[in-house]
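Service request form, structural biology core

Requester: graduate student, group of Dr. S.
Request type: structure prediction, single chain
Budget code: on file
Notes: please return the result as structure tokens.

Sequence provided:
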Amino acid sequence: MRRLVVFGIVIATAGCDGVGGSADVVARVGNYELRVDRLAQVMAEGKNMPIRREVAQQVANLWVDYAVLAQTIAEGAPLYDSAIVEAAMWRDVQQLIADHYYNEVVAPVANVDSAQLDSIYNADQFRFLKHIVVRSAATDAPPVRAERRGRAETALQRFRNGMSWDDLNSEYNDDRSRDVGGNLGVVERGQHIPDFEAAAFALAPGAISDVVETTLGYHLILRPPLAEIFDDFKSGIEQRLILDADTSFLDNFADQMNISVRGNATDKVREAFRNVLASKGSDVRLGSYEGGRFLMRDFIRWFEGFDPAAQTQIASLPDEDLETFLREVITNHVLVIEARNAGMALDSSDFAFLNDAYLNNVAVVRATMNITDQSLGDTATTVSERSRQLELRIDQYLQAIARNERTFVSVPPYLADTLRASKEWEVYSAGVDRVVERAEELRALLPSSEFAPGPIGVPATPPTNQ
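Core staff response, request fulfilled:
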């Protein structure tokens, strides 16, 4: 399976980061609004929550994600139809399309028939090995090393006298090797230390080595006959061939598609990290490929698929590594385009997988936020009643996670963007500024011992959605 670098989603939104609105409101979704004083209170009382503008922006956008989900539920709007599922599972859709293309183009290269496998087994490049290791460090006292070598010699003699490999492994192998039956699987020349490799590659089929001393201790190495390990050997060889074919395919593909990264691309990407949301519609050119251009909005779509910790790592990459990463993302982007052009599409099993995964994702979010249909019960029978209850619950949940009193969960970005596209929403810059001012005032009135520096309850990353 060809694993793409990263996945995410961005869909053109109906809202934006605005400068208008009431001076008392920081964010709005339809008839829901997050007032400046309320967010300031949440931040002021939040345990270890730093009062900074980027944090206020982040929390306001988090509230927008919660609110668009809550409004969708309150209105009884489609949340589970196939179009939303496919859009919200964008990352998985890209992977499935790439998998189909990969299985069509690359995987067949690695198929090995019986004759080919026999030839590979008898050649000098690969071995399938099992071993027993009696561990002994070079710093062990001479009597200890002698005892360990004697144990390995005894094991060898008992095997040659008819003891089964399974019994030998159970009695003599160390814990790590014993748990896998002593299997090393398929190894290639150059993979192990010289003394071990020399003994292993000198073995005839079915033979076991004399005791081999290495820095790890004392080894017995077995080369099983092909008939005994046919399936495992075939699988191991095909996996290695797939890896080689995958690397070769991607290198050739990048050359064939004339994939390139612009000279100032890393600087532009670093600028975008400071305000990811504002960069979603950017037409800034980062690279090109045969027949197309790779724009900032394309990059942000892929970038959003990373979890916050990975986004932080990406944002801190040195320029050379960031450029390499960007080239890989462009390659994956073009690969999916080519896959679709080649007719790759989702099948019924793909749709079943996507639907199950989506239902689980939404169920986890709703249960964690206490906004399930069961939790709402029969008391909220009208849209307005459900809306009021849901608005109250997202307010309570936001406060609870700021205080580290509840488990944090976010609406997955591809689902959040899908729902934002169907709602009128806005985050007001002036409101964000006012939140910071007001939160500082409120924090000053509270005991300072409660607010020692520490992580925010809502995960924060250098790339900020404004």
